[in-house]
Amino acid sequence: MSDMFTYELSDLMLFSERVYWRLFDLENTALWPMPLLAPLALLIALGLHAWRPEAGLRSICGLLALAWLLVGWNFILQRYAPVNWTMTYVGPAFMLQAIAFAFLAVRGRAMGRNTRPERMTGYGVILAATLAYPGLALWQGRTMASAEIVGIAPDPTAFASLGVAFLVSGRWHRLAVLALPCVWLCQSALTLYALNGPAAMAPALGLGVGLVGLILLGKRPANPE
Amino acid sequence: MLFSRRTLLTGAAAAFALPGFASTTDAAPLRTIPSTGAKLPAIGLGSWITFNVGTDPVLLESCAKVIAAFVEDGGGMIDSSPMYGSSQDTIGYGLEKLGYPETVFATDKVWTSTADHGPAQITESRAAWGVEAFDLLQVHNLVSWEAHLETLFGMKDDGRLAHVGLTTSHGRRHRLLERVMRDYPVDTVQLTYNLADREAEDRLLPLAREKGIAVIANRPFRRGALPRALKGRPLPDVAQELGADNWPQLLLKFIISHPALPVAIPATTKVAHMRENKAAATGPLPDADMRRRIIAHFRDL
After folding, report:
1. CA B1 to chain CA centroid, nearest Å
2. Model ipTM value
3. So where are chain B's domains?
């Protein structure tokens, strides 16, 4: 077992970068027009939140519950696990996260009176995950066919989930939407670092946001004002 | 050498005594596994990372082309492992398209820390390849090696397996490998050996020759890092004498010229690279003096 610590990160990679990005290409094609509808639905729910916060937050959490369920089943277990057997063990964790979001969607007590900076941060994170994340494909020299899209791909779905932490109240509620996305983004950053250094920046940034959220939200009372 | 699902296993002795490589058009001389006399080409085909393409139809087709070209150029050892994601399925896909050619030396591994799961895993591997039996099964990275060796030697005794081997990589667990080589009648060992990783020369390769164990070289290019690092660097003078046009060919010629090493298993996703690798076994190979000059040149770079 001590041998494990003498391996480099790249030695542990089971697949190539080409194979990794092709997964998104295939997934987007297989689920079309979901790659268009999923972000649109999240944007509508975000708009609803600005108008009627409780209904909006319930909608966002409901959509993310569906997103974690679909990403866990379709992408993690059906698409990713064949090239990365460790994902077989990760799939069930996505189902747990889906349950956590479903719980928040149903349970109105998760809704809190957040400060304006918190709400703006939450909106910003969700907007970045929904609108900016797919554009990374172009920045990385790929086509939009292999774009990572919220509700279809795990990284932007985890990133968007972090934004919800700034919209809900209660430490346990926040922890429920921060913990697993942070763990996922951490492993994703390590994977992409081993495959292609610069591509790791996006999930690493997401992880940074999540960690800041954990630190800041852990210090403040459950219901301010 | 290779049994498809449609082939009846009528007796290992008869089957393994009839290698299909005799008809190969490859001018390279075949190599011999000392313990059984089985013969196979010096350049095999690895599948670590390169063949792990999941269910991607485009990439599956691309890998099938590499396998087809490999078979066309004489075939030989194709090596995989249950650890390599979907590589076994990819090989099965490629072989099925070719009608399970006789010139493939089917080589796989058992890789599970649960000793009792070994036989079931071997059955799963056979199903993925679409073959009735493997030519060589190895204990992957010496994981649970005692229990798995017992399983593999049992299969060999029953005529269900031709060769039993051990693997390690990255220069790890050499002491244990040496001990097992001394104490068990294994047919092959697979280890990392290339121009930059020559630790095995000290003890393991001489021991392999002494015991009549065939050595299979993995990571001949350090997963492509060696050719990348050497790109643009001058080849040594001996390259011309050896007919090596580029570094990958010289690296392979260096490996397979060691008398303890019958086979190297480079992995690739490109047909052109596969053919280039195969070509390394044709023409002259470096003798002891040339090997020293290649090592000296490499050190000076």
Report:
1. 15
2. 0.84
3. 3-8+41-300
